[in-house]
Write a structure and sequence with these properties.
By secondary structure, the protein is an all-beta fold. The protein is built from two helices and 60 strands. Strands 5, 8, 10, 11, 12, 13, 15, 16 and 17 form a nine-stranded mixed sheet that branches. Strands 26, 27, 30, 31, 32 and 33 form a six-stranded antiparallel sheet that branches. It has a five-stranded antiparallel sheet with strand order 23-22-21-18-24, with no helix packed on it. It is globular, with a radius of gyration of 34 Å. The protein starts with 17 loop residues before the first strand and ends in a 5-residue tail after the last strand. Keywords: Signal. This is SH3 domain-containing protein. Pfam families: Peptidase_M23, SH3_3, SH3_4. It comes from Arthrobacter halodurans.
Amino acid sequence: MVSLQRAFSVPAASALTVALLASGQGAASAAGPGSQPHGLTVVPGGIPALSPATAVSIERVALPLKPQTYRFSSRYGARCIPVIGGSTYHLGQDLGAANNDPIYAVANGVVTRTSNGTANSSGYIVVKHVLGGKTFHTVYVHMWKATTHVAAGSVVKAGQQIGLVGNSGPSTGPHLHFEVWEGAWYTGKSLDATAWLKARGVDLAGNASRIYPDLRPTSCSYYAASTLNLRSAPTASSQVLSTLAVNTAMRGIPGEISNGYVRVTANGFTGWVLHSGVSPYKVAGKPSPPPQQEAGSPDEDVVPSGQVGSGTTTVAGTYSANSGVNIRSQASTGSAVLKVLPKGAKATVSADLNGWYKVSYAGTVGWVYSSYLTRVASAPTTPAPTTPAPTSPAKAATHRTTVNLNLRSGAGGTHAVIRVLPKGTAVAALSAQGTWSKVASGTTAGWVASEFLQKIAAPAPAKPPVTKPVTQPAAPKPPVATPAPKPAPKPVAKPVVTLQTSVALNLRAGMGTTFKVLKVLPKNTKVTQVAVKGTWTQVKHGTSTGWVSTRYVAKAPTTAKPVTKALKAAKFRTTTKVNVRKGPDHAQSIVKILQKGAAVTVNASNGSWRRVVVGSTVGWVPATQLTAATTASAAKPAAATASKTRTTTARVNLRTGASTAYRAVVVLPANAKVTSKATKGLWVQVTYGSKTGWVHGAYLK
């Protein structure tokens, strides 16, 4: 789990567990992290109570997420950078949770700032609190939309929902990162959020469903995400010790970052490289552009592949803004904003510097990152008649496009599209850079993704004619039987590998957290493996193909497919409102919705599903949502059976009677051994320890 450095880390909040903090003179003397504040007596359960001599007002402090719904993972402090853009000094606590889980304010306060997230930048909410006479700020990050429940200026209470867990920005999976600052946010003092809550009676780790081990390596393995300048000091003006090619191996130490630069050793030198150019894994092609962030981001110091140092290349033309974007004074997200270029506005581009375009708009000249601009085709004009200059012949075609393909101005998906080459277009390959090829189509040259090119077989050279001497014809030879052609070998089908997600997981357009999220795959979703590269796996789900983090998928367990078995028709009633589906699976379409108590006829089974007939409708419902169609007063007596040891297949209620309408005596754990004594419809009477009751037969094996 990962958060952006400093300004973009995620706090998590839950409403259920609260603590009381006495404010006023007794509480004003601050306690150190982990110590007990003055004026508080901690009672069992971790909820502080007021001691008799304390002050005048009471303040609630709450968990940021519901207890037992989150995982306690990456901790506060130094660490290795987990993804491109991730921090090496973690300023908060990560809490892995399900997508759209509710986030709660940890204390009374006022929302001072909100920002929506994208695939490139993290969404966040900042809340200001005054506790014990001191000002604190809590920060909640990685939600997609920060204004679902609050806006800047909203007054919130401890335990009030303020947002939803998301996975925006540099993040490997849905989670909430929780930060605490004493004094001002970002410029104040960063605190260990877990210790801060613990000092106020709220145990963040103790309420987690799982606590991951705290692994703190002494060194980190990194790779250059693009061609980088290794500098003698953490500034853009310091001496360049070496230029590092893409995927150059680097070694660093957890937490060593200054002024937006990370200290590394590479090529025999120890120096500083730009934080945004450091990757924990090898990269393919050009990385995605940096996000539009707040002032304070480091200056751009990434050198385009094939160049040393910085320089400009001309990409003159008229461009349109894809969205509202800042025009900055320099080619850097850390420079001043001169003006906002509105969505759809046209600007004139005159130069390109490390992926930034120099633009002129409404009298303002500045810099905009290229991915936010699209070239506008110029209107055709009638040229004055001129004498055409002699041109060199076009290069012979060497490849064909295998799909409709964008021809771009540079080697990367962030460069402007010059034109679209239809499938089957013949092009001449000129050069290659990583996974991109420079090609010529007619008089136009540009860059395309190499994987969508197919080489054209070169024609065999024509042989010169040979003059044969005239001779007398020989006697004809008897015809030779032509042997029957051998059958072509049958292609060997590659085995299909089915994987299953272990968490709710983003399916992205490329190998990295900066790529667009195509969809969110729920936990336990089955996908088909297409390819594996580094720490990323390409998978197919339905009609979508994309990339997921390899650590969150594994081979799906193989289970025997249930067989449909005919049953003697019997009358049942639904125990709740239930969907009747076309087949015995939750993925099947709904053919009818039955209300609680609806009468049905069961005539077949398939695993834990039953086929039902309702009027003219035939479909499938889960067996757990049915009960024999008898009332408690008219119920048939249970049929005694020989005692038999059986095992529960999941956590299940042991009830006082053969229906979900009866009270639960105890919850039986999964894999519990029970002794069956009698049956009544689909229910089985069992003994577990000293308890005897009824469980549904679908939960026994």
